[in-house]
Amino acid sequence: MIVRPVRSADLPALIDLARSTGAGLTTLPANEERLAHRVGWAEKAFRGEAERADADYLFVLEDDAGKVVGISAVAGAVGLREPWYNYRVGLTVSASQELNIHRQVPTLFMANDLTGNSELCSLFLHADHRSGLNGRLLSKARLLFIAEFRELFGDKVIAEMRGMSDDRGRSPFWESLGRHFFKMEFSQADYLTGVGNKAFIAELMPKFPLYTCFLSEDARAVIGRVHPDTEPALAMLKAEGFSYQGYVDIFDAGPAIEAQTAKIRAVRDSQNLVLAIGTPGDDAEQFLVHNRKRQDCRITAAPARLAAGTLVVDPLTAKRLRLWAGDQVRAVPLAAHG
Hints:
The protein is 28% helix and 30% strand. The protein is of the alpha+beta class.
């Protein structure tokens, strides 16, 4: 498997992937015009022709036969072209000594606090390929790209995780809150944000703080929780240094997690090494390896061994990276230790 930049020729495969995602992945709508536009911008970003506010580094996961089976992306900066909304979970305290009452009520504040940060987004792997190292490679490859091209990204990286919904795509949080203001199904609002129609959020959502005690018990219970299918992705990013700091999605209340870019494990611990081709050994550790290119970026996960400033990989890994012995690579162990 290899992670590489998206190309316009990948569009049919992306449409197929988008149709299989279900609700919850707003940045991959099954809309051919919108996806074609996004792929075009991604190609500009990889060529260095997009400002950070517009940069959308969209990657695909490709097998050795050339079939695209997954996608992931990282945005250069969010909220610099149009407002970026989250709810910040706060606390309101009400007290009366005379009545001996002291109440702490969680409160939701509409906020644009995450504006300007880079964002991990659009992670999706076809169900038939959710095995082995594929998921970790697809997600973590973005972090190694950030490490190599640090100047293209912000000082903080965020990731909005998919919130709770049932088998029919019904969100308890949406049913208790959003539906009253938008008068539409969760899936429709989710789709509209994905195709870029975000202005209606500002026009229709209440600006004042929302007391969570007015929400249904089911809605309160899902604030800051991820969908069961997203739990492995959340655990993976937490191991890389991401954490929940009290921001949630305004539609499904899924958590927005964040990390200082310099402290992300794959950024902090990755090394620039010389590639050596040989036999890594039976006990070789799995490494994430990047060919250090931008437009022709290729990243894979493979057994490798550190040896005196070199990274020893087998011939197939070098072939996948399109590199020769003596070329430069950036690498980091695939798994976080400790």
